[in-house]
C-alpha cells in the first residue's frame, strides 16, 4: 500500500492552483470538472508520477472550521521537503510569500512555515 493522493482544503481553487504552480513550482497533473468544483491535483516537478496533492474546496462547514482553527492556532496542514531551505526561503520571499516562521533549526532538521494565501500554513523542512 502507498499514498497516491493527499489533500488540503483551499478557499479558492483557481487561486490555489496559481499559487501552488506559479509560486511554489508544482506541476498541474489533473484538472477535471466535477460539477461546481474541479478535481485539481499538483505534483512535484521532480517526481511527476509521485504523490499528488489535491486542492480540495473547503465548502463543507466542518472543513472551513477545521482549516480556520488550524490556521489560527499556527498549525501547518502539511510539510514539503526541500534540499536547501535557506535558498528556498529566499526564493519564496522574493516572490512575496509571507513566512510566519523563518528557517529554524530544531533537533537536527531546519524548518520554516509560510502562508499559502488559500487559508493554510505550510511547513517546509530540510532534513
From TrEMBL:
Pfam families: Glyoxalase
InterPro entries: Glyas_Bleomycin-R_OHBP_Dase, Glyas_Fos-R_dOase_dom, VOC_core
Domain VOC: 1-127
The protein's name in its UniProt record: VOC family protein
Organism from which the protein derives: Radiobacillus deserti
Lineage: Bacteria, Bacillati, Bacillota, Bacilli, Bacillales
Amino acid at each position: 500500500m502507498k499514498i497516491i493522493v493527499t489533500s488540503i482544503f483551499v478557499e479558492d481553487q483557481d487561486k490555489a492552483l496559481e499559487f501552488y504552480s506559479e509560486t511554489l513550482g508544482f506541476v498541474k497533473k489533473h484538472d477535471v470538472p466535477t460539477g461546481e468544483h474541479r478535481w485539481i491535483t499538483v505534483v512535484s516537478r521532480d517526481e511527476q508520477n509521485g504523490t499528488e496533492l489535491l486542492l480540495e474546496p473547503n465548502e463543507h462547514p466542518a472543513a472551513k472550521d477545521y482549516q480556520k482553527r488550524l490556521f489560527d492556532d499556527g498549525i501547518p496542514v502539511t510539510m514539503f521537503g526541500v534540499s536547501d531551505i535557506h535558498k528556498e526561503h529566499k526564493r519564496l520571499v522574493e516572490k512575496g510569500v509571507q513566512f510566519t516562521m523563518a528557517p529554524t533549526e530544531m533537533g537536527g532538521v531546519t524548518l520554516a512555515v509560510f502562508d499559502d494565501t488559500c487559508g493554510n500554513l505550510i511547513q517546509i523542512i530540510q532534513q
